[in-house]
Design a protein that fits this description.
With about 100 residues, the chain is an all-alpha fold. It has four helices and no strands. Helix 1 crosses helix 2, helix 2 runs antiparallel to helix 3 and helix 3 packs antiparallel against helix 4. The chain is globular and about 40 Å long.
Length: about 100
């Protein structure tokens, strides 16, 4: 599957989420091939981080940070699975991403 162009940051993201995306995205792409299908996962993680920063309730902060961490962990696992799949599996990238959300 060919790499896609870098997509623009969605307008719906908060300023905090956009700033985090601008910080996080270069770190992710430095070592990994990010495809168009990966963007919603990264955007969602940055959105949760932005919500974490602006939340006033401690319980909400914990929930947003947990969601952020979980999404990034799923992204990391997907990359590991993709590396092993490139060595001969019949399963496609979309199937691996779907399973990462289960």
């Amino acid at each position: 599957m060919a790499k896609k162009k870098i997509l623009d940051i969605p307008e719906w993201m908060s300023d905090e989420a956009k700033a985090h995306y601008e910080w996080l995205f270069p770190k992710i792409t430095k070592e990994n091939d990010v495809e168009e299908i990966d963007y919603p996962l990264i955007w969602a993680a940055c959105d949760y981080y932005g919500r974490f920063l602006t939340s006033e309730k401690v319980a909400d902060k914990k929930n947003y940070l947990s969601a952020y961490s979980n999404l990034l962990e799923k992204f990391k696992r997907k990359l590991v699975v993709m590396e092993s799949k490139e060595e001969g599996s019949e399963e496609g990238r979309e199937d691996v991403i779907s399973k990462a959300f289960e």
